[in-house]
Amino acid sequence: MIQRIAVLGSTGSVGRNTLEVIKAFPHKFCVVGLTTNSRIDILYQQIRDFQPALIAVKDEVAARRLEQRLNLKKYKYKLFVGKEGLKEIVKDKRIDKILLAISGADALLPLLSAIENKKDIALANKEALVMAGRIIIEKAKRNKVKILPVDSEASAIWQCLEGQDKKKLKNIYLTASGGPFRRMQRSQLKDISINRVLKHPRWKMGKKISVDSATLMNKGFEVLEIMSLFNVSLDKIKVVIHPEAIIHSMVEFIDGSILAQLSVTDMRLPIQYALSYPRRLPSKLPAIDFFRLKALHFEKPNLKHFPCLELAYQAGLKMGTMPAVLNAANDISVNAFLEKKLDFVSIPVVIEKVLSRHKNITNPDLENILSADSWARDEAKELIARLDSR
Ligand SMILES: NC(=O)c1ccc[n+]([C@@H]2O[C@H](COP(=O)([O-])OP(=O)(O)OC[C@H]3O[C@@H](n4cnc5c(N)ncnc54)[C@H](OP(=O)(O)O)[C@@H]3O)[C@@H](O)[C@H]2O)c1
User: Fold this and answer.
1) Is the CB of 175 under 6 A from ligand 1?
2) Which among 74, 258, 288, 314 is least buried, having the fewest CB atoms inside 10 angstroms?
3) Per-residue pLDDT tens for 36-72?
4) Is the CB of 36 under 6 A from ligand 1?
5) What is the rounded CA–CA span in Å between residue 112 and residue 21?
6) Can you name the residues that pair with 3 across neighbouring β-strands?
7) How much is the pLDDT for 131?
8) Is 110 in the pocket of ligand 1 (CB under 6 A)?
9) What are 174-198's pLDDT values in tens digits?
């Protein structure tokens, strides 16, 4: 039977890779829904290619422009507009599985809504899990919904744990390529340009996650993501820098055996597995050539040079609303960096200050999380404005 997929965030890096996977398997998958924030030129082309029944555009002006272009075609579709549109689209009975590739905190409410509507989720977005992992996983369990990891490291751990007794898990080795500045000192990073930050040595990704990879906050987010997805305590998650990015993560059991998942560095692989699970489908991607590769390397992350990872560990120790604050302060700081209002090395400075001012709420409900998120955004903006005016 063909699986009907809605791709939320179809115009982004993961979204576009997902559509390539779907296109490669026309007898296995079809597209029923596509959504974007505002990049309607890309969306328009995708609509022409896939003719989805459901479309959502968050930006209202962009939505109207798209509608004008689509009206010229005799094509039946339902267009959802604005923030609420995403919550609406996930209710549609024609959707079998949702691939959630919206970036940032705005993915949280559509994700919860999708779970309430009992849709299985192939989940690329990590910010929602960082903010509200416990709430998401509990809701998914109550609604018998599968959360299928798309993030390559989470997918690797998921694949290594398949069929294993999770009580016998000793450690998770979460690998990180180290980003573009692995070998640089903090002092060398002060005046680093946006272009250099966005040039990741191994992965082609959206801007926000590229900055997060350069600061290692992305790895910090993955630590928090993995705690929720696999119900693992923080002390069992070890970050290992592995510059070749061939091993996507490893799992160690109590007898000392370690299982690893290896593949070429290409997001289409974990996307395909999350879509085809529990089956595996053939892939046209090149195989690993071990003889050309020759060696794999491993290093300890330098927390002094990359304090964002340490900040994420601290938030993971405290939990409660701290991870949501970490995410929100990071989001504002990364945006400020991309708008040239904050330098690269000040990103962790702002986040640390916001975390230190926050009164943590343990066992938060969704309302607590959303208000911590909005409080942290205001605090971070204020701090950045003060730094900017100096
Ligand atoms: N890229 C990777 O290789 C990778 C790997 C693992 C995990 N992830 C995670 O997957 C998520 C997506 O990453 P990405 O690199 O694909 O990001 P991206 O290229 O920036 O794409 C983000 C997508 O979400 C849409 N979007 C952004 N803000 C939105 C909002 N407020 N409401 C509705 N739609 C919104 C964007 O629409 P517009 O195009 O109109 O802006 C775009 O379609 C992130 O959470 C990231 O951490 C990414």
Assistant:
1) no
2) 74
3) 999 999 999 999 999 999 999 999 999 999 999 987 6
4) yes
5) 25
6) 29
7) 98
8) no
9) 999 988 888 888 788 888 889 998 9
Q: Residue 70: its pLDDT value, please? A: 87
Q: How far is the CA of 13 from the centre of ligand 1 (A)?
A: 7
* Nearest atom of ligand 1 to the alpha carbon of 57: 33
> Among 2.40.30.10, 3.40.50.10810, 3.40.50.12780, 3.40.50.720, what is the CATH number of 3-149?
3.40.50.720
Report the nearest atom of ligand 1 relative to the CA of 17.
Answer: 16
pLDDT tens, position by position, 200-216: 777 778 899 999 999 99
The set of long-range contacts for 280-284, using a CB threshold of 8 Å and a minimum separation of 24, is 281/25, 281/28, 284/24
Ligand 1 atom closest to the CA of 209, numbered from 1: 47
For residue 71, how many other CB atoms are within 10 A of its CB?
9
pLDDT at 263 over 80: yes
How many Å lie between the centroid of ligand 1 and the Cα of residue 12?
5
Atom index in ligand 1 nearest the CA of residue 36 equals 37
Tell me how far the alpha carbon of residue 290 lies from the centroid of ligand 1, in angstroms.
32
Is 70 exceeded by the pLDDT of residue 137? Answer: yes
Per-residue b or e along 261-296, where b marks 16 or more CB atoms closer than 10 Å to that residue's CB: bebebbbbbbbbbbbbbeeeeebeeeeeeeeeeeee
CB 218 within 8 A of CB 130: no
Parallel/antiparallel/unpaired status of strands 97-100 and 78-81: unpaired
What is the C-alpha to C-alpha distance for residues 344 and 166, in angstroms, rounded to an integer?
39
Residue 294 above 90 pLDDT?
Answer: yes
CB atoms within 10 A of CB 113: 17
Q: What is the distance in A from the centroid of ligand 1 to the CA of 9?
A: 6
Sequence spans of domains, the chain: 3-149
Q: What is the mean pLDDT of residues 320-331?
A: 98
**φ, ψ at 375 (rounded to 5°):** -60, -45
Ligand 1 contact, 38 CB (< 6 A): yes
